[in-house]
Amino acid sequence: MSDSAPELPSSLLSVGRALRMGFRAEPLLLVTGGVLTLAAAVPDALLALGFKLLAEAVALGGGGRLVAAGALLAGLAVGSWLLSLAGERINLRFAERAAVKIESYVARLQSSVATIEHQERSDHLDLLAVLRDHAGALSQLYRSLFSTVGAVTRVLLTVGLLVSVRPLLGLLVVFAVPTVLVSIRRAAVENRAEQGGAQDRRMARHWFVLGSTAPAGKEVRVAGVQRRLRDGRREAWDRAYVPLARARLVSTVWQSAVWAVFGAAFVAGVAYVATGPGSPVAVAGSVTLALAAGGRLSQYVGQTVTESRFFRGIWLDASRRLTWLEEYAAARAGAADLPVPARLRQGVRFEDVGFTYPGSDGPVLDHVSVSLPAGSVVAVVGENGAGKTTLVKLLCRFYEPASGRVTVDGADLARLPPEEWRSRLAGTFQDFFRFEFQAGRAIGLGDLDRAGDLAAVGRAVERAGAGDVVATFPDGLATQLGGTWRGGVEVSFGQWQKLALARGFMRDDPLVLVLDEPTAALDAESEHALFERYAAAARAPGGRDGGRITVLVSHRFSTVRMADLIIVLDGARVLESGTHDELMADGGKYAELYRIQQASYR
Asked: Tens of pLDDT along 561-570?
């Protein structure tokens, strides 16, 4: 499994997809905003012509000519302002509506991926961090595109006016081209620098969160590492910002140079018109037009440069990342052409499974072959880093095996629909999340279809042995969890753990029940009693008939001795497996570790 940075899709493909997404979001607002934005470019560019006619009217005298020229100039100015204002308001409304849909779409894409690899790999996280920052900006893609086209329209109309005065003035465009090219290059260089510093920016953010939020507050103060947190954040920020600042400085120097050349060419063009042939009135009108149009040309070229830079550096880049995420999600959808069984008859089997985390030196699982029989209670034990949690992750399809396969009743797990498979899983993980909702809702999330069923929530609380926790809450299941919320209560780690257990027991008839060290905050006696109850339920007729597999992961050997099958992992391999009595009789690793723990409890 490679840890190299993924290659982004082509710009053309990405922008096309993003534009189609925006059109589907709000087609009427989109078309209206585009028409108004482009229409506003015409009177704005023709203002130079109005100034020319006004100058000629002043030189020739006559009230009628002055009134007509003034009325034309006013009409162009007001028309440009009204169209621009209306277009901006419509585009803003479109962007607000589209932003909600696009951000929801990005979140849905990430959660739709069957595995969680993209949320744990550093190179993928760098891409996703930039996409999250710019997801809302994608809603501005059309506005940027319209503004860019509008700016180009202004440039073309302005060049046409200049050429009508003196054809050679059209050469000003040649001097304007480098400003656009340098700007595009500038955006690309700065974007590479920004992408290169994505991980350091995430690290700077991590240092900031450590130093400014409650979870780490006690340890930070006891250890007295406040200065180290500040220094760490500063160092990470410098690593991210210094290369970007250097890239910006170099590109700014180039930008200034090409604009200086354009400015010199513009001054020369005005002097050329002023010294040309023609009557004084005609020359005055031509100079006025050249000044107005030439001055506006620099402004319009600047607008084109700015919009193209944002389009190239932000919206285009964000759209490429969005397309990458779409393709990533589609590539991991798999065949999913086999149904999830209604009950397990044979069980789950790991066949020569190997797995290595991206960036790791060695495999976490190496040629692992083991069966989890239907209707059994299976315990997985081993020292830290032996691969216990990884085995569970593969069983839940959070990752795909790098080699070998996992089968369910003989069918490849990779061919089962992941959402359907997970709907038949239940349990709790050691790194459970703290949902700061009302207690009943935080538990009910374990089975969303029955989240509002208080009877089902009550049964889950009973299964998890969490009744004592709920009893301490002032409003029972209606109590808001988390002291930072209005009316919320502080919840200890052990209480959170029992609530997480209850959430894991919301489903009544799962095919697989996973308990990945979910009772670390409980004492050994409480854990043993809890697991004993789970094992008894698993062996009851309801559990046996459905072929339910209960997987227990624990460091406490006194707890797992009740299991039908104990799998001992060591050095990424299955070292031994069997019942407690069989493993004790063998006198291997399990027996050694069991006796050590037994002696410590005595």
From this structure: 888 999 999 8
